Inverse folding.
């Protein structure tokens, strides 16, 4: 089981370093916040790039990053070796999401008319738990990138994938930080 | 095979005139059917890829006359030549065709249309499924099997399964690709666990379906199911009057799917073994994702603080477990070769040289480049680096620290013995310090 996980990490690391090279070549002096943003941005895009556009969250990240110039450069740099269609898929995501959002608003407005018959205790508890679950799915949707436009089932799948990738990302970053501090301390 | 087909035919004769039949007789026939089907299914549960069979069922449940049975059989045989449950599929098709043509009103053309679509779809489905790993598809398959365990002619059940199939196929692709591309430990565990869950799911579904059977029989008769098939999913529309039942069934399928995926998440999220409810699980998941995201932010901040110039590439590259570092260096070399301005060189000449040395595949002659670009002191660095990469691993330069040793090891692991110049090894503390200071 080690092998596939480390493959993911290596891919991520490689793409992350590629992205950082872009920043490294661009400016030589950046404030710490700028650096942090650059690091995080390249890490996120690298993470999304490892998925090759197969998952919704990765496409959402890339689509978001492509909106501003800095991210666009990174995206082009990281993704151009792989596929043009991926980039197009990510740009097309915005339109799809808008459509989905409109549909959901429509659905929600229709559902509000439902009468709540919470007379019995059991039904009341059920409705309460439903509300809690709904609220928490809303929160989860806000956490997972591109999550607002997914239904429950695909949301959970995306969360699964996203969690795995996040874990790999954290692991790689932590190790690189350890190495960096080690070198700096050892100097 | 033929016997099995004939058996329901005996009971199915009654069903040819479904307007005259009583509900009870139809119920009896269906129960008999279901039992047989369940037996068949559980026999073949382990091996089958039943996606296309479900499709076939679904379509044949649309109802067709006995005359079209032979066509049905032949057409359904076509898609699955090489599959294990070919015979079973035939059985299934035959049985359903004979036994349950209760929709007299349904046009014959529709049936054939549906059947032809059936025959066209399974190859794709089969291809999709065959392309997936067995484990990856098995989880989905078991889901379908379990949901189809109590399969009958009920529209609700059909709607159920069709929606199940549709979502399952779409999810199956993503999941299979995921498992193929990056089979993480969690996911492989998931598939293993899922195999254990399969039997559980099947048993529970069998019970549920048999319970539902009697209650659901009455209202199915009048509705039709028209199916429009697209390569990826099946869309089912039920007539008015069936809405509530199909909704409840669809909801049940949805709930089962959600709970199944929640179980996957339970494996991934640490400390979620004891939590059983959806709300609690969601809470844990949210906390975990939030904590991971916060960790990423924190780590990126720390990295920014530790590296004033975002130049920690080389060090971190080689700090990982052994991997083909050359592939990583390619783009960096490409970039470094572009930057010939001395200003940049002064910042990190050593880094460039290192990268250049590693990336000899690029066709650049980095030693020459390095020699031309740099001053005298750093020149010896690439040379020594080249030297040590030529040497065996038992000859690491003692004065270099651990990082650079890793560097050498990795370079050696690349196994590329290109045109390294063999020069006397001149590593010493001074060079190492120079190298490090150039990096940071």
């Amino acid at each position: 089981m080690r092998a596939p996980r480390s493959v993911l990490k290596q891919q991520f690391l490689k793409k992350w370093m590629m992205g950082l090279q872009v920043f490294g070549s661009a400016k030589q002096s950046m404030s710490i916040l700028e650096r942090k943003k650059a690091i995080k941005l390249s890490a996120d895009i690298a993470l999304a790039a490892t998925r090759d556009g197969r998952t919704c969250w990765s496409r959402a990240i890339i689509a978001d990053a492509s909106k501003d110039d800095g991210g666009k450069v990174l995206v082009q740099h990281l993704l151009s070796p792989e596929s043009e269609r991926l980039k197009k898929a990510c740009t097309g995501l915005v339109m799809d999401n808008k459509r989905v959002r409109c549909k959901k608003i429509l659905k929600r407005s229709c559902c509000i008319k439902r009468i709540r018959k919470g007379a019995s205790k059991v039904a009341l508890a059920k409705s309460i738990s439903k509300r809690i679950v709904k609220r928490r799915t809303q929160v989860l949707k806000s956490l997972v990138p591109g999550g607002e436009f997914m239904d429950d089932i695909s949301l959970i799948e995306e969360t699964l994938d996203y969690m795995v990738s996040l874990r790999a990302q954290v692991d790689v970053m932590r190790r690189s930080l350890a190495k960096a501090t080690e070198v700096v301390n050892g100097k | 095979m033929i016997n099995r087909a004939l058996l329901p035919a005996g009971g199915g004769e009654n069903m040819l005139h479904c307007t005259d039949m009583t509900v009870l007789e139809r119920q009896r026939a269906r129960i008999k059917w279901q039992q047989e089907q369940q037996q068949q299914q559980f026999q073949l549960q382990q091996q089958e890829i039943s996606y296309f069979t479900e499709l076939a069922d679904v379509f044949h449940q649309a109802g067709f006359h006995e005359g079209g049975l032979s066509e049905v059989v032949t057409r359904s045989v076509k898609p699955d030549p090489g599959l294990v449950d070919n015979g079973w599929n035939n059985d299934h098709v035959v049985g359903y065709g004979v036994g349950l043509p209760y929709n007299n009103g349904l046009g014959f053309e529709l049936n054939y249309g549906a059947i032809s679509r059936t025959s066209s779809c399974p190859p794709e489905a089969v291809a999709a499924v065959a392309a997936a790993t067995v484990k990856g598809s098995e989880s989905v398959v078991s889901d379908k099997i379990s949901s189809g365990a109590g399969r009958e002619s009920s529209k609700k059940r059909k709607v159920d399964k069709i929606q199940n199939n549709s979502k399952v196929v779409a999810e199956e692709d993503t999941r299979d690709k995921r498992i193929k591309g990056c089979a993480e430990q969690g996911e492989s565990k998931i598939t293993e666990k899922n195999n254990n869950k399969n039997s559980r799911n099947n048993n529970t579904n069998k019970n549920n379906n048999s319970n539902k059977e009697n209650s659901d029989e009455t209202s199915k008769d009048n509705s039709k199911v028209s199916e429009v098939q697209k390569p990826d999913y099946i869309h089912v529309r039920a007539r008015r009057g069936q809405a509530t039942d199909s909704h409840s069934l669809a909801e049940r399928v949805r709930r089962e799917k959600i709970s199944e995926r929640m179980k996957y998440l339970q494996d991934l999220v640490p400390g979620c073994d004891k939590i059983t409810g959806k709300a609690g699980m969601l809470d844990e998941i949210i906390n975990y994702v939030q904590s991971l995201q916060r960790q990423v932010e924190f780590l990126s901040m720390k990295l920014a603080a530790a590296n004033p110039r975002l130049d920690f590439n080389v060090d971190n590259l080689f700090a990982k477990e052994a991997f083909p570092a050359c592939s990583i260096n390619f783009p960096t070399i490409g970039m470094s070769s572009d930057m010939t301005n001395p200003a940049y060189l002064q910042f990190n000449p050593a880094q460039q040289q290192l990268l250049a040395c590693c990336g000899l595949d690029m066709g650049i002659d980095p030693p020459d480049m390095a020699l031309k670009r740099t001053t005298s002191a750093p020149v010896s660095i690439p040379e020594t680096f080249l030297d040590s990469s030529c040497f065996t691993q038992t000859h690491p330069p003692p004065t270099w620290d651990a990082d650079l040793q890793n560097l050498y090891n990795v370079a050696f692991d690349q196994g590329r013995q290109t045109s390294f110049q063999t020069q006397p090894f001149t590593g010493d503390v001074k060079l190492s310090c120079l190298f490090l200071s150039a990096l940071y």
Notes: Chain A has one domain: 5-112+144-185. Chain A touches chain B through 74 residues (CB under 8 Å). The first helix of chain A runs from residue 2 to 26.
